[in-house]
Design goal:
Elements: E1 2-4, E2 9-13, E3 19-23, E4 34-35, E5 47-49, E6 55-60, E7 64-69, E8 74-81, E9 94-95, E10 106-109, E11 115-118, E12 122-126, E13 131-137, E14 156-161, E15 167-171, E16 174-178
Antiparallel strand pairs: 1-2, 2-3, 4-8, 5-6, 6-7, 7-8, 9-13, 10-11, 11-12, 12-13, 14-15, 15-16
């Protein structure tokens, strides 16, 4: 799956090399849920796929959210609210649209289909039910090795998970490792 950012499309590349559009109308504008070509994406930069074939796309605009695309191409808001900004100093964990994010910079899916979300200076976890909690980092963008909320990240560009559940984080000019979280 590919986040075709500049064409505002989510594309699928089959094993034989055939490229098809899973969702998106190709117009640049605000994020709008819908089915297939009725959906519209905004400032998508990252994508992840769970074991059931659901595709998650980080959406940034006035606010930030994670869109979920089913294998049938149905696009919904999974977590966050594209129309709601994160108030400064706030850490809004919550379920579904009640969660708030800084700009989403990276996504990854673990073996239990939890979605890991990097929003600039934090690592968040969303369960398959859409319950969002903060695993590490905080509002301040700086560098500090520590556990949980005491850790600080400068600018997360990517995340990956190994087979043992450790999370690797591309943070500004280095790769950092976070041990498996509960």
């Amino acid at each position: 799956y590919v986040a075709d950012t500049y064409n505002s499309l989510v594309r699928k590349i089959a094993k034989d090399g055939k490229v098809t559009t899973l969702a998106g109308n190709g117009q640049i504008g605000d994020f709008k849920p819908g089915t297939g070509k009725a959906a519209q994406f905004s400032e998508m930069r990252t994508i992840a796929v769970d074991s059931k074939g659901n595709v998650y796309v980080g959406q940034n605009g006035r606010g930030s959210c994670v869109a979920k695309i089913t294998p049938a191409g149905v696009v919904t808001t999974f977590a966050g609210d594209i129309d709601a900004l994160l108030p400064s100093g706030a850490n809004h964990d919550g379920t579904g649209k009640a969660a708030r994010f800084k700009p989403i910079t990276a996504l990854a899916v673990d073996k239990d289909d939890n979605l890991l979300i990097a929003d600039r200076s934090r690592i968040r976890k969303a369960t398959p039910a859409g319950v969002v909690t903060t695993l590490a980092g905080g509002e301040q963008e700086e560098f500090r090795d520590a556990a949980g909320a005491k850790a600080r990240f400068t600018l997360i560009g990517g995340i990956s998970i190994d087979s043992k559940g450790a999370i690797y984080i591309s943070d500004q000019y280095c790769i950092r490792k976070m041990e498996k979280q509960p």
